[in-house]
Amino acid sequence: MDFDPPAAVRPLLEKYERFVRETVMPAEHEVLEKGFAASDQLLRDLRGKAKAAGLWAPQLPKDVGGLGLSLVEHGLVSERLGHSPLGHYVCGAQAPDAGNAEILHKYGTGEQKSKWLEPLARGDMRSCFSMTEPENPGSNPTMMSCTARRDGDHYVIDGHKWFTSSADGAAFAIVMAVTNPEASPHARASMIIVPTDSPGYERVRNIKIMGDAGDAWASHAEIWYRGVRVPVTNRLGAEGAGFLIAQERLGPGRIHHCMRWIGICERVFDTMCRRISTRQIAEESHQTLASRQIAQAWVAEARAEINASRLMVLHAAWTIENKGFQMAREEVSLIKFYVANAMLKLVDRAIQLHGALGITSDTVLAHYYVHERGARIYDGPDEVHKMVVAKRILGKYQQS
Question: Are 230 and 212 in contact (CB under 8 A)?
Answer without folding.
Answer: no
